[in-house]
Design a protein that fits this description.
Layout: E1 7-14, E2 25-32, E3 35-40, H1 54-60, H2 64-70, H3 74-85, E4 89-92, H4 96-108, E5 116-118, H5 119-125, H6 130-143, H7 150-164, E6 173-177
Parallel strand pairs: 1-4, 3-6, 4-5
Antiparallel strand pairs: 1-2, 2-3
Helix pairs in contact: 6-7
């Protein structure tokens, strides 16, 4: 079943994985058709005392100091994200991205602006077999080899889904937002 909504992929980077304690989003990225946008998120006062892990920092390369210094307020990020994604189908490759979106919305004092589907739903809708998925992963890896930043991870997933859907793979372009 093909949705008539545009699919936008989304990815969050976070202070730590929830298994390490209370975690909060520090970056969000979205992508479609080879274009990506991301926002650094300034930690909200509600998250004071929540966990930050050296393991997560080593993975995404964002220091707590940089996120505090360069991040945008949660209200700004949520408003711009909601505007950029309004009426579109949002897809992530991790179920935890919904938790981080909900955490962002809670801190902003707003309702969660949309739900995020897991990529497995789209793979099922396209009846993608194991071989097709493996080919799509290899292609996404070649197009977007740098991972663990929100925009590049969203571009990776967008490339994978474009291949599965038989769409042209676009050369990736990152547009970083503070």
């Amino acid at each position: 079943m093909e949705s008539n909504l545009t699919v936008i992929t989304i990815d969050f980077e976070a202070s730590c994985l929830p298994r390490h304690g209370l975690s909060y989003p520090i970056e969000v990225g979205i992508a479609r058709k080879g274009q990506a946008r991301s926002w650094l998120i300034r930690p909200h006062d509600d998250w004071a005392g929540w966990h930050w892990s050296a393991e997560a920092e080593a993975l995404h390369g964002l220091s707590r100091d940089r996120v505090e210094r360069e991040g945008l307020p949660v209200e700004t990020v949520l408003a711009e994200l909601a505007d950029a994604c309004a009426g579109q189908r949002m897809v992530a490759d991790s179920m935890i991205d919904q938790y981080w979106l909900d955490t962002l919305a809670d801190a902003a004092g707003q309702a969660t602006p949309f739900l995020i589907d897991h990529v497995s739903l789209l793979l099922d809708e396209h009846r993608a077999g194991e071989r097709q998925i493996m080919e799509a992963v290899a292609l996404a890896d070649s197009v977007q080899p740098h991972r663990h930043r929100a925009a590049s991870d969203a571009l990776w997933l967008s490339s994978l889904l474009d291949h599965i859907a038989g769409r042209t793979i676009h050369a990736p372009a990152l547009m970083r937002m503070a």
